[in-house]
Structures are given as structure tokens and as C-alpha cells.
Amino acid sequence: RETVEWNTDVVFDATLLKSDGYPTYHLAVVVDDHDMKISHILRGHDWLPSTPIHLLVYKYLGYDFPEVGHLTDILDPEGGKLSKRKGSTSVRGLLNDGYLPEALFNFVILCGWAPKNNRELYSLEDFVEAFEADGFQKSNPVFNREKLDWFNGEYIRKLSDEELCAKFEILNSKFTEVDKNTKLQITKLIKDRIKKITDLETFAGFFWKTPEVDINLFGENYKKHLPDALQVIEGINDWNLENLNEKLMSNIKEKEYKTGDFFMDLRIAITGTKFTPPVNDSMILLGKEEVVNRLKKVTP
């Protein structure tokens, strides 16, 4: 907004003290801000009608005026007010959903403020250095959850494997029970794929929980793919990624299978889903015995 002026003759007489002697918000907020030496006050534009009341209180109490500004509101994608019915909107709720504080901060500062260089990633220190008030936008920003997911993914990948692993441990008791080396390996496998910390169970839950496999997910040739995969895997004595890749690819070429279809059926048999870390890497971590057991349960 540009500079806003009021005719104080039409400002209503606000109640400053209740009948019990306690101050109302209009008095308390002014005294509190003055006591804390607040120099700049930024509120949502819906507080604009209260501003002349507060400025008059400042004046009659003999306080110096602060700089006052009003910001746009963050709206939902349909243009209405943010609602819990469409997902968490409180900071606590978003943190519980698996968003990192750094990502939330970065997302929020770019809702209604635009840097001159179109830069997107800002730490608090970066923002303080780059901030200019003329970057505030006049139009209401939209709460774009996909963009928040993108920010969160970027900050997840800024974490070291050890830092991310520690966050997973706080989140998931089953993950905590896994040995340290395997936890780090799982963390490395899913780090580039997750958008939220809470995606751990979705992308890695099969490591500690045998999945229920829906045979309807398999391709039309799974009755050929799975028996061959089982036979190849049972025949591997030196259980490592290089051997597993080589033996399975050799079988695929020999039988003239489509590589993508073969590995998708194998992925579903081992993990119960189509969306996981690389299936061969995952099988190495699971161990040969567990992989064979899972294949036997679903192989025709």
C-alpha cells in the first residue's frame, strides 16, 4: 500500500480499560510495544482499521511513533482464507507434517516479498542482508504447498546424512531399532527422493515391515519375471550390488525381457509399491535371506 491517512474525527471511541480495570488490547499492545522498544510494526492489512486507534494512543501517552506497515494476507489456492481442512496451516502443524524450520522460514519470507535478483534460497542471515522494504508485494500471495515441498526438499538435501538420520530417529521408533550403518545407508538412498521428513515411512518402511503385496500392481509378465528373479538371486553366493546387477541384467538379456517391466515387478514383490529407492540397492540392504523369503511369498 501507499501512505494511508485517516480523518481522526471519524475514528470511533475505543474502550481502553474494562470495567474491572484491566486494559483492552488497544491499550495493552501499545504499552507493550513501547516498553519493548519496538521500532517497526508490520501487521496484516486486516488490522488496518485498528491502526489509527493505536497511533492516537501513542500520541496521547506521549510515545514516539513507530514505523507502521500492513502486509498482504496469504490465501489458499482458491483465493479464500487458509483453512485446516486443506492441510496444516499453523507452524506447529507444518513442523509435525515433516517440514523443516529453515524451509518454512524461506517459504514465508517469499510470500509477499520479492528480491530484486529472483533468488529463492535464503537463510535468516541472507534475508537480513538482502531485505529492502520496497520488495513487499501489493497482491495477496497464494499458499502453494507444492512450492513449500520444493523448498523443504532443498533444505533436506542440505543436511548431512548424519543430520538427516538423526531427524529420522526422532520421528520413527522402528527406524531407531535398525543398526547404525544400515540407517545411514537407508538415509542416503531416500534423501534425494523425499519432500518431507515424514516421507520416511512411505519410502523406506519396507525395510522394517514386510509389505502386503497387491498382485494387481504387477505387470502382465510377472509370472515369468519373478520365478527367474528368484532363481538368479538364490544362486548368488557373494551378496553385493555389483554381482546382483550383473546377474539380473544377464538374465534379462538372455530372456529378452523389458528391463523396466522386469525391475518394476521385482520392486513391487520386494517393497509392495512402485515408488521406492533403487530396488537393487534396497535388496542388498535387506539381505539375501529376506529378499528370497519375500519373493517366495509372491512368486507363482
UniProtKB/TrEMBL annotation:
Residues 178-298 form the Aminoacyl-tRNA synthetase class I anticodon-binding domain. One of its GO terms (biological process) is glutamyl-tRNA aminoacylation. It holds the Pfam family Anticodon_2. Residues 4-150 form the Glutamyl/glutaminyl-tRNA synthetase class Ib catalytic domain. Keywords: Aminoacyl-tRNA synthetase, ATP-binding, Ligase, Nucleotide-binding, Protein biosynthesis. GO terms for molecular function: ATP binding; glutamate-tRNA ligase activity; tRNA binding. Transmembrane segments: none annotated. It comes from the Bacteria. Signal peptide: none annotated. One of its GO terms (cellular component) is cytosol. Belongs to the class-I aminoacyl-tRNA synthetase family. Glutamate--tRNA ligase type 1 subfamily. PANTHER family: GLUTAMATE--TRNA LIGASE, GLUTAMATE--TRNA LIGASE, MITOCHONDRIAL-RELATED. This is Glutamate-tRNA ligase. It comes from Candidatus Woesebacteria bacterium GW2011_GWE1_41_24.
